[in-house]
Known about the structure:
alpha+beta; 11 helices
Amino acid sequence: MCRAFTWLTILLTLALTSTASAGTSHDPKGVHLSFGASDTTMVVTWTTRKETETNVRYGPSDPGGATPADLSINAIGDARKFVDYGSTSSVRYVHVATLEGLTPGQIYEYQVGDAKLDRWSKVFWFNAKRTAEQYAEGPPLRIIALCDIGFKESDSVVELLTQEVHGEQPPDAFVQCGDFAYDLDDENGGVGDQFMKAMEPIAAYVPWMTSAGNHEASHNFTHYRERFTMPDRSKTDNHYYSIDVGPVHIVAYNTEALFWPASFGVEYIQRMYEWMEADLASVDRMRTPWVVVHGHRPIFCEAADGTSCAFNENAAFLQSGKDARDGVGHALRFPIEDLFYKYGVDLAFYGHEHEYWRTFPVYDEKVVNGTDVSLNRYFEPRGTVHVTTGAGGNINMDRGDDPPSRGTCDMIKDNSPWCAFQSGVDHGGDRSQEFAYGVVTFESGSKMTWEHFSALDDGKRIDLWSIETSSHGPFARRTYSDNLSDAALIATE
Ligand SMILES: *[C@@H]1O[C@H](CO)[C@@H](O)[C@H](O)[C@H]1NC(C)=O
Ligand SMILES: *[C@@H]1O[C@H](CO)[C@@H](O)[C@H](O)[C@H]1NC(C)=O
Ligand SMILES: *[C@@H]1O[C@H](CO)[C@@H](O)[C@H](O)[C@H]1NC(C)=O
Ligand SMILES: [Fe+2]
C-alpha cells in the first residue's frame, strides 16, 4: 500500500513535471512596452511559444506601493503567428494589447497572460504618459538613448539601465536606435528570445521605442517587424513614425532603407522622405518645442583612420543627398540633413559606430555655433547637434588592454572640425571601447541636457552638456539672442 502510494507519487510527480515543462511554452516571454498612438494608451507586446489568449489585467498602483494593486481592469489584444524562416521553422505567437483610458502620470501595475489557462507573467508596473503640464511641473522628461545592445557583452550596461529604471526617478522612455541582440534571428530566433528576456527588467517597465539597424536586415527585417510594436506599425512595419512626449516631438526613421536596395527602393525612400518632411512641417513648436530624430546610421561620424564619414563613408552622402567624393557611388541619396536644417531639428542621435561622440551644432559640414558655444554649453545653436550613442555592449566591441580614449577631438580636428567630444573611439593601439549610455533630460522648453555614463567605470558620468535656446523652429528663421542673461531663458530654467 505504502509502496504503491510511493510509486503513484513518483508517477504523478513525473506527469506533473512533464506537463509543466511542455506547458512553459504557454508562458509569456519578453514582455515590453511602447507608447501607443494616443497619449492615454500604452501598448504591451510579448511572445508565447504555444497559442494562447492575449489578456492583460491591470490597475492603478497603491500610492505608497504598500499593497499590491487591484488588477481588475482587463484588456484583450490580438496574437499573430510568426513562423521563423530558419531551418527549424520555429513558431512564436506575438501578442499585442493596448491599455486604453489611462490616467496621465498614474502608476499602473499589470500582468499579461491567458485568463482561461490562468497562466500569467509576473506583475510589472509603468508610469502612464504625463501631460505637458505634468512634465513642466517636474520631474522633467528623461529619456535613455542607446543603440547597438547585443545579447552578449551587454550585461554591465543592462545592469546599469535596470538600476536607472528601478531607481528613484525612472526614465520616461528608452530609445534604442537599431542593432538588437546580434542578432534577433540567430539560432532560429533563440538569440532574439534570450535578448528580449534579458531586456524585460527594463522594457516591461519603460516604453521601449525603436528604429532598425543593419543587424535586423535579414529577410527584409522580419524579426524587427514581428517583435516590436511601434506607432503606425500596420503602415510602416516599425520603420518610421513620430510621437509626442511632453515637450518633445520624437521622429524615428529608417536609415537602412538607403543601404539595402534589395529590400527597399527609391520609391520607398521617397515616400518616407515625404512623410518626414510633412511630419516635421506639422510640429507645433509652441506645444512641443523640441524636435529629436533617431535612426541607426549617423550623418556625421568619425572613422578610426582619422577621416570623417562625411568624406569617406557613404552614410553622410546618402543622407545629405550629395555626390560621393571618393567613389562611393550609390543610387539612393536623399537630402535628409536638409530637412533637419529646414525644420529645425534640435538633436539627432544614432548608433552603428560602437562609440560615443557628439558634434558642435553643424550643418552641411560647417560648424554653426551661434552666439556662444562652449564645449559643454551650446547657447543659441544654429544647426542640429548630432550624437552617436552606439556602445550598448555587443560581440563586435573591443575590450583592449588600454583604457578607452576619452575627451575632446584633438586627434581628428582636421578632418572633423564638428567633433566636440568622444569616448571609446578606436584611434589605433589596443584601446578598449567605452561601454556607455546616454540620459537626455528636457528641463524646459529652452534647455535640454545630455549626460553620458560609462559602464566600464561603474556608471561614472563621463560627459555632460546642454543645449540652451530661446527659440525653436527652422534654424534660418530663429531669432537669436546675443545676451547670455536673456530673460526668457532665465525664467524657464
Ligand atoms: C520590405 O519591407 C518593406 C516594408 O517594411 C516593403 O515596403 C518592401 O517592399 C519589402 N521589400 C521586399 C523586397 O519585399
Ligand atoms: C565652435 O565652438 C567651439 C567651442 O567653443 C570652438 O572650439 C570651435 O572652434 C567653434 N567653431 C567655430 C567654427 O566657430
Ligand atoms: C541682457 O538681459 C538682461 C535681462 O533681460 C538685461 O538686464 C541686460 O541689460 C541685458 N544686457 C545687454 C548687454 O543687453
Ligand atoms: Fe549597425
